[in-house]
Amino acid sequence: MHVLNPQFREMCVLDDQPVLQAIKRLESGGVQIAFVLDKADRLLGVVTNGDVRRFLLEGGDTSQNVQLCMNRTFRSAPDDASREELLKLLDLGFNAIPKIDSDGRLIDVLTPEYLPTVPEAAVLTRSRAPVRVSFGGGGSDLTYFFVDHPGAVLSTTISLFCHVTLIPRTDGELHLHSEDLNVYQRYESLGDLQAQLKRNSLLAATVSVLRPTSGFDLFVRSDFPVGSGLGGSSAVTTAIVAAFNELRLDRWTTYELAEVCFQAERLCFGVAGGWQDQYASAFGGFNLIEFDGSRNLVHPIRLEPSVVNELEECLILCDTQIPHESGAIHKEQRRDFDAGQKANELKEGVNLCRKMHRHLIRAELVEFGRTLHAAWQLKRGFTASVSNTRVDEIYGSALKAGALGGKLLGAGGGGFFLFFVQPHFRKAVTEALKSAGCRISAFRFESRGVTSWRTKLS
After folding, report:
1. Worst-scoring range by mean pLDDT, 24-28, 85-89, 172-176, 409-413?
2. Half-sphere exposure of 86 (CA within 13 A, CB side)
3. Which of 121, 130, 301, 375 is the most exposed place for a label (fewest CB within 10 A)?
4. 140 and 185 belong to one structural domain
5. What is the mean pLDDT of the chain?
6. What is the CATH number for 248?
């Protein structure tokens, strides 16, 4: 239903009223213009002080009908005119622009002082977080190790992402959609979610830590399979936290964001593991990440573009398609460590990590590949579950075809393998891996960490 703003009604006269009424409107109004409407509020013409003077000089009388005085060739703007178009009209010198709807009815009057800004629209937020490949030092990022022995991990992120969309709801309900697991969860409120922690998903555990104050739909999808060994669960957590962080006025720093992710994934959801994945996904790029009992530090690594390109060409990433459970492997490793075993192996892993770091920054990529092999041989001894006959067969076939070295990514047992291969052996190694039942996965290094943005909810 059309209702004209009372403020504008004071600037209007009806088409059956006299010129005198238009003069009164001109005297009382701030823009020195009167709008002539019919009974349906259709705009028929405008009257200015100049129009009145010309009418009177031509012998007109103020008691005559206003239609004899009004200007029928006025400038107006349609209801769907853009803000840019309206600004241009006002910039031409018009002190008042009538805005009319499709039926010709007056709906607004725009002036240089009064041009409403675009109303605030509901927004949704999106984010994406990359997964990582860890070259060396895995296991030393576990708290029980680095509280007494400094840890270090060398890793980089790659162009496989978890994607999150967060859409606000007005009913206060929380709806969680996981495309990866084909799971949908609905909670009436945050309290309802927290009351059902026993059946929590990673998504729900993360929301529980974030404690949102309004309802939403959360959609999560990933470019990588579950159990990849690429730090996928951390990428999921990081992307979710980043989507909520986008709505904060005091956004978390990257370190703070990674810490919130660790809390959600390791403490609230209860997945055993280390700290490297959250930092890698949050910061992105090549990093040497150091851990100790007081402070974790991420050291970005500057590499020449040619070195990055060459390393990318020398690496083969493949999915063994062997399922594994990283949490169980970490628990087994913790038992061995608590029994007084494996501390020396983890220390040696840190030494190899630093050696690999030196080779990388000096562009000694062949030595980097050989050190990758040494690191895998060490890692195989961490626990019995890190490798198995099938994994050993895959690794052996790759070495026989010409790979210099490689390692299972993540805790071990299955998931993705990473191999370093010189150019002239790449085809042979690729064919050997395919024959062993692996699926080659194309990738590129990703220099950025988690990113988030907001957009209007259309």
Report:
1. 409-413
2. 23
3. 121
4. yes
5. 90
6. 3.30.230.120
Does 373 lie in the same domain as 295? yes
Tokens of 78: 């349609």
Residue with tokens 């609230």: 268
Domain CATH code at residue 65: 3.10.580.10
Does residue 436 contact residue 393 with C-beta atoms inside 8 Å?
A: yes
Q: Which domain, by its residues, includes 61?
A: 6-110
Q: Judge if 164 and 307 occupy the same domain.
A: yes
Task: Kindly state whether residues 252 and 313 are assigned to the same domain.
Answer: yes
User: Pick the catalytic residue: 51, 108, 141, 277?
Assistant: 277
Q: Are 217 and 322 within one domain?
A: yes
pLDDT at residue 1 in the model: 46
Question: What confidence tier does 327 reach under pLDDT thresholds 50, 70, 90?
Answer: low
C-alpha–C-alpha distance, residues 364 and 360, integer Å: 6
Residue 373's φ and ψ, nearest 5 degrees, are: -65, -45
Residues 159 and 18 in one domain: no
Q: Residue 382: phi, psi to the nearest 5?
A: -60, -50
The verdict on 79 and 130 lying in the same domain is no
Residue at which a domain ends, from 80, 110, 140: 110
454 located within any domain? no
Residues 155 and 289 reside in one and the same domain: yes
Report the pLDDT value the prediction gives residue 329, as an integer from 0 to 100: 58
Tell me the per-residue pLDDT of 176-219, one tens digit each, with 9 for 90 and over.
999 999 999 999 999 999 988 766 689 999 999 999 999 999 99
pLDDT digits (tens, 9 = 90+) for 356-369: 999 999 999 999 99
Is 277 among the residues known to form the active site?
yes
**Domain ends where: 110, 144, 170?**
110
